[in-house]
Specification:
151 residues; alpha+beta; five-stranded antiparallel β-sheet; 4 helices; 39% helix; 17% strand; binds adenosine monophosphate; binds zinc ion
Length: 151
């Protein structure tokens, strides 16, 4: 079994609160969230950093991060914005050697909460948080179907 904790999550050998997955990427809650709903999107296949990631997989990583950022701004989660970020390399504070895109939901006026989140990084009600993000993603699918139906 892989030494890489994120590969272990992909394989189902380590626990995670998953919010999304497809053939290329997997997304789950950060175990030490900076903001409520802090999510990591990773390629299923191991790539240590961006130098090992092919461009198509990078595009899929961002596609999923884009959807999660939109999903958390829907009614099920009600964020007002999001930060999307990759720490690429140890010089850039990458601590887990498997590429990951951080999606950090934000609220208007959350500057102080964000600053304390950076220090405390406490996970609260992860089951509920993950369910709300999944509901937000399902809401995007429903909205897309409605658009198609109404032409
Ligand atoms: P970075 O500094 O960009 O490498 O961020 C690594 C992130 O992975 C941190 O925010 C950690 O809290 C998070 N992390 C580490 N181990 C796990 C895990 N087992 N499950 C979920 N998130 C994790
Ligand atoms: Zn890995």
């Amino acid at each position: 079994m892989s030494e890489c904790v994120f590969c272990r999550i992909v394989a189902g050998a380590a626990p995670a609160h998953r919010v999304y997955e497809d053939d290329t990427v997997c997304a789950f809650l950060d175990i030490r969230p900076i903001t409520r709903g802090h999510t990591l999107v990773i390629p299923r296949n191991h790539a240590t950093d961006l130098s090992e990631l092919d461009a198509e997989t990078g595009a899929e990583l961002f596609r999923a991060g884009h959807r999660i950022a939109r999903a958390v701004q829907g009614p099920a989660f009600a964020a007002d914005g999001a930060n999307l970020l990759i720490n690429d390399g140890r010089a850039a504070f990458q601590t887990v050697g498997h590429v990951h895109l951080h999606v950090l939901p934000r609220k208007h006026g959350d500057k102080f909460r964000f600053a304390s989140g950076l220090v405390l990084r406490r996970s609260r009600e992860p089951d509920r948080v993950a369910a709300a993000i999944r509901a937000g993603l399902a809401g995007l699918d429903t909205a897309a179907e409605t658009d198609t139906d109404t032409g």
